[in-house]
């Protein structure tokens, strides 16, 4: 089976800077700035993950487990401190709402801008433009600057552009919670349609019932480590402590 995503031994740490008391800061300065006023947070620790073409995978775990950080590495938004990430085919998705959108541009201009960022040609965007606007339910607001959009309108347009790129690999991070319920259902139906077409899907969500209905495989992370990788119902049961 063709590999769509290959993550090999990736690690990522962030530096957390803490605001200390004036006294602690003064002592630190007197000692010649010895010691560190910050600490390191290990978001991912030597993580391996292989996803085959057409698989539907949920990344699960509590807050701070590393699932969103892993998804950002797969998307290319983040670069690992060590290890490698490889993907095959067009990768698109919603990692952060409206990433790639410019607030001072209209919805129309942002469709072209974001479509180009996601790898579509101008001709492809033009061909799919009416369909993108119709799916997003933006209507007459398509020529309004997006800084005047509600978060729901912003999300609808971002999601619509992403799904219309016809990606081989589609990534979704938690942001379905932003839209209203009818549009959430529409998004879920579209994601299921992509999965049925054999697209590779990786989802991060706290909604265990939702991912159980969309994904076949669950990968559970805990403090940056993969603690379980197997059937979705077993992953969900593990997370629920059943």
UniProtKB/TrEMBL annotation:
InterPro entries: AAA+_ATPase (IPR003593), ABC_transporter-like_ATP-bd (IPR003439), ABC_transpr_TagH-like (IPR015860), Bact_Polysacc_Export_ATP-bd (IPR050683), P-loop_NTPase (IPR027417). It holds the Pfam family ABC_tran. One of its GO terms (cellular component) is membrane. CDD domains: ABC_KpsT_Wzt. This is ABC transporter ATP-binding protein. One of its GO terms (molecular function) is ABC-type transporter activity. Residues 22-239 form the ABC transporter domain. The keyword Membrane does not apply.
């Amino acid at each position: 089976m063709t590999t769509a995503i290959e993550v090999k031994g990736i690690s990522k740490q962030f530096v957390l800077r803490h605001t200390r008391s004036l006294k602690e800061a003064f002592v630190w300065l007197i000692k010649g700035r010895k010691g560190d006023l910050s600490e390191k947070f290990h978001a991912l620790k030597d993580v391996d993950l292989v996803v085959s073409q057409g698989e539907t995978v949920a990344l699960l775990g509590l807050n701070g487990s590393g699932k969103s950080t892993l998804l950002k590495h797969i998307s290319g938004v983040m670069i690992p401190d060590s290890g490698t990430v490889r993907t095959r085919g067009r990768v698109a998705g919603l990692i952060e709402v409206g990433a790639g959108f410019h607030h001072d541009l209209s919805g129309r201009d942002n469709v072209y801008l974001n479509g180009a960022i996601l790898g579509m040609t101008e001709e492809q965007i033009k061909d799919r433009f009416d369909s993108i606007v119709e799916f997003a339910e933006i209507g007459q607001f398509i020529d309004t600057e997006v800084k005047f959009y509600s978060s729901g309108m912003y999300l609808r347009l971002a999601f619509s552009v992403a799904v219309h790129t016809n990606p081989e690999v589609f990534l979704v991070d938690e942001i379905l919670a932003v839209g209203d319920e009818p549009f959430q259902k529409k998004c879920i139906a579209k994601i299921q349609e992509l999965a049925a077409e054999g697209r590779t899907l990786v989802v991060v969500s706290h909604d265990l019932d939702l991912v159980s209905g969309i994904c076949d495989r669950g990968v559970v992370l805990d403090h940056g480590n993969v603690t379980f990788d197997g059937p979705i119902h077993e992953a969900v049961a593990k997370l629920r402590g059943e």
